[in-house]
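User: Fold this; tokens only.

Assistant: Input:
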Amino acid sequence: MTGNLMYKYADDTYLVIPTSNVQSRKTELNHVVEWAHGNNLMLNRAKTVEIIFRDKKRKQQIPDPLTLPGIQRESQIKILGVTINKHLSISEHIPDVIGKCGQTM
């Protein structure tokens, strides 16, 4: 669907769907499953999660859509080793990096 984007990094796939296309989530997920099957791969549903990014400064909030069956909704995810929360902040990631730097020194 127009506006939806898919990013692949090694064996990770990120499907980005804007609010205007929220109704397409299930269809897009099925496309990923079909693509994987067509390439002799399988979607690991145990590792499949959904995150809804929100602008915490915006006063009017749109209600969250219903969860998809079998898909866990998270408030933060790790993308290429960086922890990002639902407000597009990496504040949870920084203490981890500082801690690891201190351990190696």
